[in-house]
């Protein structure tokens, strides 16, 4: 089996007395789409913040291709191919869709802005994502589903090695989800990208992901294939069909 490209071991994050993450270990390998699910407040976004370098963990470490990157900045990680989308989308609303992709490449490469290569690559990625009709539209004017696809396209604008997708299917239509699944699968299977995907649409996760990790109250509750996770009684009780709960608090 291929070894992990991105690995987080023993991660702990506290917000005052709230343990958002407690001794969480998770890995993602090149070529796989791994799902990360769990109730509201389980710690999924906090874990993404740790993996993308936005938040330094209180305990544990993150390695990328065998190198300890726990103290590396988000900029370093993005430039080395660790890309992320956000639950609350973060497009440059006053730029066109194409320019969103060009700017991302300019910034990550450090080359002269707007090079022809970056424009051509932007056009190709937008075509691949089924967004060619939106090239000249202003990103801020797009409906949620299209904006999510553009955010994904921007993460792909120069080839990623790891994709961290935070609720990419939220607010999308069935057709957009179908396209999203095709693009994500292509990135994993053809481009050998390691994909970790947070999503509340469990049907989408179960269909797309070869492996699923379940977080609950800041801990890994279960891990396995979609079928294994779906039939796990603890997962059923904590998440599948259960009401949201608050994260564990030590009263401190
Ligand atoms: N900046 C913060 N300050 C204080 N508490 C926080 C902060 N960010 C997250 N938390 C708390 O940490 C816990 C984990 O939150 P997180 O957003 O990571 O969960 P999540 O699984 O992503 O939830 P959701 O599915 O609703 O997005 C929650 O109890 C949350 O209230």
UniProtKB/TrEMBL annotation:
<dbReference type="GO" id="GO:0016887">
    <property type="term" value="F:ATP hydrolysis activity"/>
</dbReference>
<dbReference type="InterPro" id="IPR027417">
    <property type="entry name" value="P-loop_NTPase"/>
</dbReference>
<dbReference type="GO" id="GO:0005886">
    <property type="term" value="C:plasma membrane"/>
</dbReference>
<protein>
    <recommendedName>
        <fullName>ABC transporter domain-containing protein</fullName>
    </recommendedName>
</protein>
<feature type="domain" description="ABC transporter">
    <location>
        <begin position="6"/>
        <end position="242"/>
    </location>
</feature>
<dbReference type="GO" id="GO:0005524">
    <property type="term" value="F:ATP binding"/>
</dbReference>
<dbReference type="InterPro" id="IPR003439">
    <property type="entry name" value="ABC_transporter-like_ATP-bd"/>
</dbReference>
<dbReference type="InterPro" id="IPR051120">
    <property type="entry name" value="ABC_AA/LPS_Transport"/>
</dbReference>
<keyword id="KW-0547">Nucleotide-binding</keyword>
<keyword id="KW-0067">ATP-binding</keyword>
<dbReference type="InterPro" id="IPR032823">
    <property type="entry name" value="BCA_ABC_TP_C"/>
</dbReference>
<dbReference type="Pfam" id="PF12399">
    <property type="entry name" value="BCA_ABC_TP_C"/>
</dbReference>
<keyword id="KW-0813">Transport</keyword>
<dbReference type="InterPro" id="IPR003593">
    <property type="entry name" value="AAA+_ATPase"/>
</dbReference>
<dbReference type="Pfam" id="PF00005">
    <property type="entry name" value="ABC_tran"/>
</dbReference>
């Amino acid at each position: 089996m291929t070894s992990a490209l991105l690995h987080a071991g023993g991660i702990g994050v506290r917000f005052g007395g709230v343990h958002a993450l407690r001794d969480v270990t998770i890995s993602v390998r090149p070529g796989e789409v791994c799902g990360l699910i769990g109730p509201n407040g389980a710690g999924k976004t906090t874990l993404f913040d740790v993996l993308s370098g936005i938040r330094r963990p209180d305990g544990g470490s993150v390695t990328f291709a065998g190198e300890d990157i726990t103290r590396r900045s988000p900029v370093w990680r993005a430039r080395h191919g660790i890309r992320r989308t956000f639950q609350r989308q973060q497009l440059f609303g006053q730029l066109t869709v194409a320019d969103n992709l060009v700017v991302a490449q300019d910034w990550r490469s450090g080359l002269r802005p707007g090079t022809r290569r970056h424009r051509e690559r932007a056009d190709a990625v937008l075509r691949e994502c089924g967004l060619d009709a939106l090239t000249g539209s202003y990103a801020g004017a797009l409906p949620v589903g299209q904006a999510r696809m553009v955010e994904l396209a921007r993460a792909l604008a120069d080839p990623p090695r790891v994709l961290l997708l935070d609720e990419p299917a939220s607010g999308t239509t069935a057709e957009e989800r179908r396209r999203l699944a095709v693009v994500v699968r292509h990135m994993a299977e053809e481009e050998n990208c390691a994909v970790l995907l947070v999503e509340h649409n469990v049907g989408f996760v179960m269909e797309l992901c070869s492996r699923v990790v379940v977080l609950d109250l800041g801990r890994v509750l279960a891990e396995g294939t979609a079928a294994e996770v779906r039939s796990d009684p603890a997962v059923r009780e904590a998440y599948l069909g259960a009401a949201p709960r608050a994260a564990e608090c030590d009263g401190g």
